[in-house]
Specification:
Number of strands: 16
Structural class: alpha+beta
Number of helices: 35
Radius of gyration: 33 Å
Low-confidence stretches: 112-129, 194-212, 246-255, 394-403
Distance between the termini: 77 Å
Strand content: 5-15%
Shape: globular
Length: 794
């Protein structure tokens, strides 16, 4: 294969010629360096397989030579030549910490086809005649027309006759699916088969009497397709199930849920992205740098709440004041534009009241581009003066408006900004390598540029999380140390060190680093949330809550901070308080799938099933998933709307047909709706799938406990008992295993054992609200022992 690969191969419509170092496509040719072509060759020799970074380095650069940065640069060169994108790859997939995979199957340039066409003289190949002529000679067009006519007649006859014969609804569905499934089968049969001497054979030549055989060929194809399709649809119906009509209760959905945004505090402020007037790349760097620098400086002013860059940049320049107020929850905001022409920079800045849309301040700067830093400082000072923030009595306002650091050379700053922009992109080893390259370029201009060293520190920390390489840790610590020697007040460095120490389990060091950040910038959300998560790992929960609470207080409109605080409250079992925080997340970002799902789960676990229904429905509207449909089905099930529950579980199965838990949930809903035959079929299919999963991993307690419930529903009591007992041995601290144990005992009539198991489930953390609303336990509601488990009686 290796020698054939060297002769050239195709990746989709691109021709790769390794010996020429060239990639040719419709838009022209691109050249690859020898090393990059060698990397592509290695990937092409193992298509679809993971090729490790170590193997590529050894194969292309030699054992002990090369570096991860060189490999990343080569892969980036290949991506450019193939017009591939790391975020949505068509050719090369990056597997963090492991290597790369070629997604496209290489087709050697020497490969040909020997297929022949019925009716072509001298057995011509498929490529020798046009596609339409090919279809005509094989009788495919005639078969397609004949099949469509026959299929239409079958559907029409079924639609009229089935109702009169009182046949079930599924009979009409069966015929419709049969006709649809048979169409491609008929075309395939017509392409490959012909009828000779009363039997079907493969098309091997081009007989002269092809026309006379067309009718027999069409007849055989249509009838054969319907017979084959009938068998396939029957098997599918027995194993998976044909689609059913959605009941009106589910289709109608639930009432709209209203999301209340967080309050707007005094002295809350945002800086929007500045408009790039001339569209130049350098102008964009200046515009983004101006916004970032002003945000950074304003956030150091005590008493001023400033929206984070990530939140501000969810809006575009010139966004209406109403949208700014709704999304960022601020009283005032700064907007403007930047234009560069003839080595002069023109900056317009407007300070706007978000409630009225009126300008509080408008100023224009038109100066040489070298005055950029002076313009930045003046905008910051003017903003603070017009906001009139009330500083704490012990704070000297002037000290926070003195910009004493020496600005870097403008060329170094622009290179540094390129590194910042690269690091803001989705984190991959390629984007991290690109950022490091720009930071190094900035340091070549100014070796003592502290911010560039800080950027390298942050990039190496991000790199460690991607590849888990200890080299990144030492590089990060070295870059951070150099940055702090040059400027000990760089809060970004301390935050990066805190992130590094937290990711490596050094929580005491992480705490010290985050606290140092907060000494410099008390409103740093990154440090506050990082410190909160660190305290959570150290089980200092009161301190964790205080830091996470402050994070949501100091940055208005920061959906991520509300999400982290909500997650903390959720994990602490404080579901009502968690729901309030997730409500803020969704109010700020209505399409935040994670926020909506977490809100729905919070409602569910606090027993507010009616509120959980529209929340899960909204999650489905954003992104339909099996889990969301399953949870929606459970909520309908708990509310007693079994038809809606059944419909939701069918939707879940349609998205993931091999999910045994969705089929088990479907069986529960069907059983509750007295559709016992259908319930048994659902349980039987779930049994087969779960048993197969357990064969793959025989010691998985979660599959065991689910299968135990399925076996109970099918009446296999002894098997169910063995499974649940084994699951309890493997996962004794899991509340769900004790909950399933209680369900099994209760289904078998052993209420005392059921209540004991459910009590253990509650002790391990299972929600009493879910137990109270569980239809499977409705027979225990009046039992005083069960009420004690729920905390409803003494």
């Amino acid at each position: 294969m290796a020698s054939e690969i060297l002769k050239g191969f195709y990746l989709h419509d691109l021709l790769v010629e390794p010996l020429k170092g060239q990639v040719t496509g419709r838009s022209g040719s691109a050249h690859l360096t020898p090393k990059a072509m060698e990397v592509l060759r290695c990937l092409a020799e193992a298509p679809g397989e993971i090729v490790t970074r170590e193997h590529l380095l050894a194969e292309v650069w030699g054992e002990g030579h090369g570096s991860p940065e060189s490999l990343s640069h080569a892969v980036g060169e290949i991506r450019r030549a193939l017009d591939d994108h790391p975020g949505d790859p068509r050719f090369i997939q990056t597997l963090p910490r492991r290597g790369y995979r070629l997604l496209a199957e290489p087709v050697l340039v020497t490969e040909t086809t020997d297929s022949v066409v019925l009716g072509a003289e001298r057995g011509a190949r498929v490529t020798d005649i046009g596609f339409l002529e090919n279809l005509k000679r094989r009788g495919v067009l005639e078969t397609a027309i004949a099949y469509l006519l026959v299929g239409w007649l079958l559907i029409q006859v079924g639609d009229i006759v089935f109702d009169q014969l009182l046949l079930p609804v599924w009979a009409g569905t069966f015929v419709t699916v049969l006709v649809i499934a048979g169409f491609p089968i008929a075309l395939v049969l017509s392409w490959y088969l012909e009828f000779r001497d009363g039997r079907a054979v493969l098309d091997q030549a081009s007989p002269a009497d092809a026309r006379r055989r067309r009718f027999s060929r069409t007849y055989l194809s249509v009838i054969g397709a319907l017979v084959v399709a009938a068998g396939l649809v029957y098997v599918y119906d027995r194993s998976v199930g044909l689609p059913q009509a959605t009941p009106a209760s589910a289709a109608a959905g639930a009432s709209e849920i209203v999301f209340e945004p967080p309050p707007i505090f005094e002295n809350s402020f945002a800086v929007l992205p500045f408009l790039n007037v001339d569209g130049g790349e350098e102008t964009q760097l200046f515009a983004n740098g101006l916004v970032d620098d002003v945000i950074h400086r304003l956030s150091h002013i005590p008493g001023l709440r400033v929206s984070a860059r990530g939140d501000s940049f969810t809006l575009s320049p010139n966004t209406s004041s109403e949208q700014v107020r709704r999304r960022l929850r601020v009283q005032m905001y700064l907007g403007g534009s930047v234009e560069i022409a003839a080595q002069r920079i023109r900056v317009n800045a407007q300070l706007i009241d978000s409630a009225t849309g009126f300008h509080v301040l408008a100023r224009t700067f038109n100066r040489p581009r070298e005055d950029f830093f002076q313009i930045r400082d003046e905008i910051t000072s003017l903003t603070v003066a017009n906001v009139r923030v009330a500083l704490p009595p012990d704070v000297n306002a002037a000290s926070h408006l003195q910009f004493t650091e020496e600005p870097p050379p403008l060329d170094a700053y622009l290179l540094y900004r390129r590194g910042v922009e690269a690091l803001l992109k989705p984190k991959t080893i390629d984007t991290i390598a690109t950022a490091l390259g720009w930071y190094d370029a900035a340091l070549e201009v100014d070796p003592d540029y502290a911010a560039a060293h800080a950027g390298k520190c942050a990039a190496f920390v991000a790199g460690y999380t991607e590849v888990d390489d200890p080299v990144f840790i030492s590089n990060a610590e070295a870059a951070c140390a150099r940055a702090l020697r040059l400027n000990p007040n760089l809060d970004i460095v301390h935050t990066a060190l805190g992130d590094l120490y937290q990711s490596t389990g050094r929580y005491d060091a992480a705490e010290a680093a985050y606290l140092k950040t907060l000494e410099i910038d008390p409103s740093s959300v990154a440090a506050l949330t990082g410190l909160g998560l660190t305290y959570q790992r150290l089980e200092r929960l009161d301190e964790a809550e205080a830091r996470l609470q402050k994070a949501v207080d100091v940055h208005p409109g920061d959906a991520a901070a509300y999400g982290m605080f909500g997650t903390f409250l959720f994990e602490s079992g404080r579901f009502a308080e968690a729901a309030e925080q997730f409500n803020y997340v969704v109010a700020l970002e209505p399409d935040n799938m994670l926020g909506v799902s977490n809100l729905a789960s919070s409602y569910m676990l606090q027993g507010d099933f009616a509120a959980a229904v529209p929340a899960f429905q909204k999650a489905i509207d954003i992104e339909p998933t099996t889990l969301a449909y399953s949870n929606l089905g459970l909520m309908y099930y708990y509310l007693g709307d079994f038809d809606a529950a059944i419909a939701s579980h069918f939707e879940a199965i349609e998205l993931q047909p091999n999910d045994y838990l969705s089929r088990s949930n479907l069986g529960d809903a069907l059983w509750a709706a007295d559709r016992t035959d259908e319930a048994e079929r659902a349980y039987t299919t779930a049994d087969r799938m779960a048993s197969g999963a357990l064969q793959v991993n025989p010691n998985d307690p979660f599959t065991m406990m689910d299968l135990a419930w399925i076996k109970t529903a099918l009446g296999e009591r002894e098997v169910a008992r063995r499974l649940i007992d084994r699951a309890k041995e493997l996962a004794a601290d899991d509340p769900y295993v004790h909950y399933i144990d209680g369900l099994i005992h209760n289904r078998l009539g052993a209420s005392t054992a059921a209540i004991a198991a459910l009590e253990t489930a509650v002790e391990e953390g299972y929600s009493t609200r879910l137990l109270a609303g569980d239809p499977n336990l409705s027979n225990l509601v009046e039992d005083s022992r069960f009420q004690r488990v729920l905390g409803l009686s003494e």
